[in-house]
């Protein structure tokens, strides 16, 4: 299960978050934990360089893309490597939409489409589509494979 | 960045995407005349996340929501009326200032009504929908417009958004995962506005109907929408059984049409461009159906479900294949036999499962590994070794997978780590498999491979090579995962050793096995040529590799990984090293690695404690390592006293001590007490006799933590020295002659140390602590000494008695600093300040000795006069005996049935009296004023018949070991003990609860004044005397020995935060109040070193040690020493109440109330109740926070 996908800006404001199977009362703590993790470790990190953390049997992979930091929290089959795959797909999609590693401004301008992409990539806590073109087609309401 | 960093999500989203004016660097200036809702929402988003939802903040949030609410009501009303408004002015206004939710909602209604205009669609896609995405949830009153758009709009982009929002309305159950700007509870809002409100309940059936009909629409042109409709439907909460059955119907209906057509999958091609239209559409629909099926609850008994899932393996769409494999893997975990039978053909060398090995979808291959593992390990398939072998072969082939994720999954499966259930035998056989088995590539795939690749490869070699190369990676996730795999390998290896698996000699050449296999194959193989050639090739340079050498070279690489800059990777490496450490290897390297690691301030406390818990787990796997692990644990105590959880450390000490076995006990105790030799924070104090690593307690906080640790150690020593030394007054094999008691002090010390060096050593340490170190430590030391005095036989008791006496009078310093001299001179009270404390303790001992003296006198009288003991005399004796027992029990736990305060010689007389008066030894007394003998009684009482007790001379070590090994599994010691549950959680691999953000909270625990504690103890004891009649009845005499001695060590230790020994309801006969009093009593004695036991990590316990930001955490601050009494109430005595007024939830954690509603109050946090409803409200929520004032407590 991908427990959480979270996008934050450089000062720690959450831009997008998607929690799956995390009780409401723990979301706040996760949010603060992730933002703190980012604040401590993401300074000077290259775009898309992956960082890793774990808490008990839960794995966290996070990275920086432009002005935006992206956090993924997962457990069970979504271990650090699976999350690394997922975050790779997500960063790819965000870059595609924004044209480059986004500034916060650009990210927010494309907010709607990013949400749609995310909807195609992570569906109910499970990784769904991983192929760029396929995601592109699906957010335009085209079938996954075209004829 | 400068121009955008000052903006909030709200500003940026709600403004038009055209470049913002230069002055808009802050939200206040950017929105010159913002609508109140937008402005306040913006201001709430301005706060750093960490403070966003503190309770104080809630008010402003609520204000925001009220604004949105009032706006929305007007919108909802407007929506009911025919739309007349012109959209153009609206757009113009948007250009100038941020858009509020209300405006967005209104725009949707308006634009939906004017869909025929191209501009409307553009407006929707570019402005309205993207901005709406920022909000946490979608107002159900938008649903009619969305549905209208869904029916009438042609624009694909608009439609995609419509499906997205419909799905969000369906999924919104008050716990929407949306994030973003908080929105009010729409249903509650609709309720308020009785006239025109639209609730979820109103719209969901309409949405479901429309989506269902779309999902069943078989028009070719419609099929992309069909996919999205089906997807949106899966978002609806699974509690809705009606909808669920509808969904199953749709999915199976779809699969009926598209799944059965025989179909050859095209490997690894995503687009399958150029395929015929029909098959592509079919593949798309297969994908949609399988994805939806994956989101539906598993239906294990249903053959159709299994059949359809199995069909998915051959689908063309890789994502569909992945889902089908995941479903199959889950089914196989429950019913491997049926799944195996269904998949039998697919697993054959040319079957579809083989194709998946080359499928371009990592998670599909991961699922394949799990599936194969599930089937190949199934006991149910013992009679079909052929099937198992097929799946096994696929699993082994996955070791060669190019993706680390897949390869590691395969390794973990082979190692027996499938899920979080740890099974020793599975693990052990996992290690055996890894070290013994050979990967043979099947014929079908080896056609195009070279001979070299075809050569059978020992798994261990493949795995080692793979891991070694992974450790050279630069990717942190890869390093972390590789270290984790090594850790799991260590676990399996430890299990194999623990199970004593035969044939795990690691010095065997790995190729020996493949050779043996080769030889076997040459006889009956159809390709003798090839195999002979491969076996000659295998006689290469790798000939001499043994498992040990492979492991050694791997561990070399692992060790170098501690250079990684990521602290979590290093943490995992340290854990891996701990697991791979074998009991016989040198420890120095590991110790130095850990010591240097811990010196790094970057290590978060949670990670440090994780490693500490790893030590626990390691101990559980290999009890032989107790001493080694204690030595490692010592490094933690010295290096990062401020970061470790003293409770967990104590538990580790205790389990290690118990597990160390008769020979290791002394060493184990030594390892613990080394903490005592740490130089105390003040400079110039005792620097200890043993040379130890330098302490990193330079800052006051660490110094304080170290202090607490020392206290804990002193307490531990007092409680356990007798156990470690196997010295008990009531089990003394050779009761000391009176002659021994005549010795003078120094001879006595010599006698004592020759008699029992362990105990003598402990005494020396405690004596040293009693006059050096801080005030708190001294108190605990005195208590520890008293405990030992009471529990030990002579000469130890006398030695302590003398020491206490001297201490009370002063002059101990010189006596101790020159231990070999007698205490000739008196140097005054020497500033210990413990006189008051020592007096009652001395009094106990005084009374005991006095009683003994009198008894001896009496006996002599009787002997001399040669007269029988009269009943009154015996009665008097017995009463003295009981009185002393009561008195002694005040200080520490002793087994009442066996303890003889009047000395061994009284045994016969007491027995005589008991027999005469028919008093059972176990009940001790019918006197209602007896004092509790300890929690251990409660715990051990009804839960287990005491183990065989024929061995009365001492502890049954096997039993103890067994107990220790099962530490986590028996419920006896109260799994509610926080440290214990933490350990168990960890060992079970569970725990996904939120991490502790705050690292300093150790110091926020309330401290308890000694006086309070003391007073409380006495009070509690009195209460208890009134309430409890049952004291001591727990140990029937026959079983007294083993049981009581065990309980005195484990349950009887009574370190409250360790075992917190709350009697579970099943094991407690005296009722809850009695139980908590027992606990309080004993906590009292342990209390100077007592720390607030951290609440257990669990989902249901919101008071876990959370960050300061967590409003829930406020509760923990108010927990004081007395809170123990609340504990049971919290868990059992839930309060009830009724809602006084309607309340509208203002966030995820709050709950809507309707007046008069009945509630269950779980707990209170800072003016809020956490309540549960009897039945879910309209929003489907059952539990959450409500203001205290809204609830009438019944």
TrEMBL record, chain A:
It is found in: Cytoplasm; Golgi apparatus membrane; Cytoplasmic vesicle, COPI-coated vesicle membrane. It is a peripheral membrane protein. Keywords: Cytoplasm, Cytoplasmic vesicle, ER-Golgi transport, Golgi apparatus, Membrane, Protein transport, Transport. InterPro entries: Coatomer_zeta, Longin-like_dom_sf. GO terms for biological process: intra-Golgi vesicle-mediated transport; intracellular protein transport; retrograde vesicle-mediated transport, Golgi to endoplasmic reticulum. One of its GO terms (cellular component) is Golgi membrane. Coiled coil: none annotated. SUPFAM superfamilies: SNARE-like. It comes from the Eukaryota. Belongs to the adaptor complexes small subunit family. The zeta subunit may be involved in regulating the coat assembly and, hence, the rate of biosynthetic protein transport due to its association-dissociation properties with the coatomer complex. Oligomeric complex that consists of at least the alpha, beta, beta', gamma, delta, epsilon and zeta subunits. This is Coatomer subunit zeta. It comes from Brassica carinata (Ethiopian mustard).
TrEMBL record, chain B:
This is SH3 domain-containing protein. Transmembrane segments: none annotated. Residues 45-54 have a biased composition (Polar residues). Keywords: SH3 domain. Residues 1-62, 519-538, 1021-1136 are annotated as: Disordered. Residues 1132-1194 form the SH3 domain. PROSITE patterns: SH3. The lineage of its organism: Eukaryota, Viridiplantae, Streptophyta, Embryophyta, Tracheophyta. Residues 24-44, 1031-1045, 1060-1077 have a biased composition (Low complexity). Gene3D superfamilies: SH3 Domains.
């Amino acid at each position: 299960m991908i427990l959480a996908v979270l996008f934050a800006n450089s000062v720690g404001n959450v831009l997008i978050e998607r929690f799956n199977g995390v009780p409401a009362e723990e979301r706040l703590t996760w949010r603060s934990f992730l933002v703190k993790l980012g604040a401590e470790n993401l300074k000077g990190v290259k775009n898309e360089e992956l960082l890793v953390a774990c808490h008990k049997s839960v794995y966290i992979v996070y990275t920086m893309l432009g002005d935006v930091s992206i956090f993924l929290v997962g457990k069970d089959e979504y271990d650090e490597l699976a999350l690394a795959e997922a975050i790779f797909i997500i960063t790819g999609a965000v870059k595609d939409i924004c044209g480059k590693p986004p500034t916060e401004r650009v990210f927010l301008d494309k907010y709607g489409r990013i949400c749609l992409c995310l909807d195609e990539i992570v569906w109910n806590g499970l990784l769904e589509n991983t192929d760029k073109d396929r995601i592109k087609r699906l957010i335009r309401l085209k079938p996954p494979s075209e004829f | 960045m400068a121009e955008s960093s000052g903006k909030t999500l709200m500003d940026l989203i709600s403004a038009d995407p055209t470049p913002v004016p230069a002055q808009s660097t802050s939200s206040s200036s950017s929105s010159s005349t913002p609508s109140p809702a937008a402005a306040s929402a913006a201001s709430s988003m301005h706060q750093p996340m960490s403070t966003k939802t503190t309770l104080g903040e809630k008010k402003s949030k609520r204000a925001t929501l009220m604004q949105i609410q009032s706006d929305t009501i007007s919108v909802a009303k407007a929506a009911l009326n025919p739309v007349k408004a012109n959209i153009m002015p609206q757009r113009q206004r948007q250009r100038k200032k941020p858009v509020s939710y209300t405006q967005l909602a209104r725009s949707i209604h308006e634009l939906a009504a004017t869909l025929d205009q191209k501009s409307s669609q553009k407006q929707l896609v570019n402005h309205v929908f993207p901005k709406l995405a920022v909000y946490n949830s979608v107002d159900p009153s938008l649903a009619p417009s969305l549905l209208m758009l869904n029916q009438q709009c042609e624009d694909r982009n608009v439609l995609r958004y419509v499906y997205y929002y419909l799905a969000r309305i369906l999924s919104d159950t008050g716990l929407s995962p949306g994030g973003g700007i908080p929105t009010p509870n729409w249903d509650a809002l609709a309720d308020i506005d009785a006239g025109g409100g639209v609730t979820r309940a109103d719209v969901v059936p309409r949405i479901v109907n429309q989506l269902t009909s779309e999902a069943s629409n078989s028009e070719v042109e419609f099929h992309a929408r069909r996919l999205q409709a089906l997807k949106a439907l899966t978002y609806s909460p699974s509690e809705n059984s009606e909808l669920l059955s509808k969904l199953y119907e749709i999915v199976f209906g779809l699969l009926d049409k598209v799944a059965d057509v025989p179909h050859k999958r095209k490997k690894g091609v995503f687009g399958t461009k150029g395929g015929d239209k029909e098959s592509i559409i079919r593949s798309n629909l297969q994908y949609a159906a399988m994805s939806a099926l994956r989101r539906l609850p598993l239906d294990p008994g249903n053959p159709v479900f299994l059949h359809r899932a199995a069909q998915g393996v051959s689908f063309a769409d890789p994502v569909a294949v992945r889902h089908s494999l995941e479903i199959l893997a889950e089914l196989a975990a429950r019913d491997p036999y049926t799944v195996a039978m269904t998949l039998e053909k697919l697993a054959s060398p040319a079957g579809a499962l083989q194709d998946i090995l080359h499928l371009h979808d990592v998670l599909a291959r991961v699922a394949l590994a799990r599936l194969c593992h599930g089937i190949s390990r199934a006991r149910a398939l013992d009679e079909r070794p052929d099937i198992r072998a097929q799946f096994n072969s696929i699993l082994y082939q996955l070791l060669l997978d190019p993706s680390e994720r897949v390869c590691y999954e395969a390794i973990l499966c082979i190692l027996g780590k499938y899920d979080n259930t740890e099974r020793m035998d599975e693990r052990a056989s996992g290690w055996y498999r890894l070290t013994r088995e050979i990967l043979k590539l099947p014929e079908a795939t080896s056609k195009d491979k070279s001979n070299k690749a075809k050569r059978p490869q020992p798994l261990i070699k493949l795995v080692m090579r793979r891991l070694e190369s992974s450790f050279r990676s630069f990717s942190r996730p890869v390093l972390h995962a590789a270290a984790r795999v090594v850790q799991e390998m260590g676990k399996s290896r430890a299990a194999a050793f623990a199970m004593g698996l035969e044939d795990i000699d690691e010095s065997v050449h790995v190729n020996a096995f493949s050779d043996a296999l080769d030889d076997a194959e040459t006889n009956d193989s159809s390709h003798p040529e090839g195999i002979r050639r491969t076996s000659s090739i295998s006689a290469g340079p790798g000939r001499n590799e043994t498992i040990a050498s492979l492991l050694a070279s791997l561990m070399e690489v692992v060790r170098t990984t501690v250079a990684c800059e990521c602290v979590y990777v290093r943490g995992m490496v340290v854990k891996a090293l701990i697991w791979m450490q074998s009991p016989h290897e040198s420890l120095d390297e590991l110790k130095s690695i850990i010591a240097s690691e811990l010196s790094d301030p970057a290590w978060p406390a949670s990670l440090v404690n994780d490693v500490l818990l790893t030590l626990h787990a390691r101990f559980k796997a290999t009890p032989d390592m107790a001493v080694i692990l204690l030595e490692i644990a010592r490094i933690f105590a010295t290096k990062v006293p401020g970061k470790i959880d003293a409770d967990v450390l104590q538990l580790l000490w205790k389990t290690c001590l118990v597990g160390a076995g008769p020979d290791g006990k002394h060493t184990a105790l030594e390892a613990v007490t080394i903490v005592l030799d740490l130089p105390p924070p003040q400079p110039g104090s005792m620097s200890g006799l043993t040379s130890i690593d330098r302490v990193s307690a330079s800052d006051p906080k660490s110094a304080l933590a170290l202090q607490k640790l020392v206290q804990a150690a002193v307490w531990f020593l007092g409680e356990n020295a007798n156990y470690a030394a196997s010295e008990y007054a009531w089990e003394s094999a050779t009761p000391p002659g009176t002659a021994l008691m005549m010795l003078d002090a120094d001879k006595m010390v010599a006698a004592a140390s020759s008699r029992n060096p362990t105990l003598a050593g402990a005494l020396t340490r405690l004596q040293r602590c009693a006059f050096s170190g801080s005030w708190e430590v001294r108190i605990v030391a005195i208590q520890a000494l008293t405990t030992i005095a009471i529990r030990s036989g002579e000469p130890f008791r006398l030695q302590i008695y003398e020491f206490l006496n001297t201490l009370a009078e002063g002059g101990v310093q010189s006596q101790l600093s020159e231990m070999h001299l007698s205490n000739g001179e008196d140097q005054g009270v020497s500033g210990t300040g413990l006189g008051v404390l020592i007096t009652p303790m001395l009094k106990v001992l005084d009374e005991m000795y006095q009683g003994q003296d009198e008894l001896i006198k009496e006996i002599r009288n009787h002997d001399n006069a040669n007269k029988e003991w009269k009943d009154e005399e015996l009665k008097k004796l017995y009463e003295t005996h009981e009185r002393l027992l009561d008195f002694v029990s005040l200080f520490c736990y002793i087994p009442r049935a066996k303890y003889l305060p009047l000395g061994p010689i009284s045994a016969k007389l007491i027995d005589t009296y008991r027999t005469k008066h028919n008093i059972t030894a176990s009940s001790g007394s019918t006197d209602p004023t007896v004092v509790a003998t300890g929690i251990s009684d409660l715990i051990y009482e009804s839960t287990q018949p005491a183990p065989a007790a024929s061995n009365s001379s001492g502890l049954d070590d096997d039993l103890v070991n067994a107990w220790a090994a099962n530490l986590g599994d028996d419920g006896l010691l109260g799994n509610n003990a926080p440290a214990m549950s933490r350990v168990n959680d960890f060992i079970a691999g569970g725990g996904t609860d939120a991490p502790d953000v705050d690292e300093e909270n150790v110091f926020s625990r309330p401290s308890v004044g000694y006086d309070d504690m003391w007073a409380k103890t006495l009070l509690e004891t009195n209460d208890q005397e009134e309430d409890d009649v049952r004291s001591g009845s727990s140990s029937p005499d026959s079983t007294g020995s083993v049981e009581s001695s065990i309980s005195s060590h484990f349950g009887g230790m009574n370190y409250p935060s360790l075992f917190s020994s709350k009697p579970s309801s099943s094991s407690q006969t005296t009722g809850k109040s009695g139980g908590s009093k027992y606990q309080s009593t004993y906590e009292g004695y342990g209390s100077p070193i007592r720390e607030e036991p951290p609440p257990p990590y669990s989902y249901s316990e919101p008071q876990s040690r959370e960050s300061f930001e967590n409003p829930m955490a406020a509760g923990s601050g108010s927990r004081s020493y007395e809170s123990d009494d609340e504990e049971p109430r919290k868990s059992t005595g839930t309060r009830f109440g009724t809602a006084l007024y309607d309340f509208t939830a203002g966030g995820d954690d709050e709950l809507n109330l309707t007046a008069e509603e009945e509630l269950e109050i779980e707990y209170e946090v800072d003016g809020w109740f956490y309540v549960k409803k009897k039945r879910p409200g309209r929003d489907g929520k059952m539990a959450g926070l409500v203001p205290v004032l809204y609830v009438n407590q019944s």
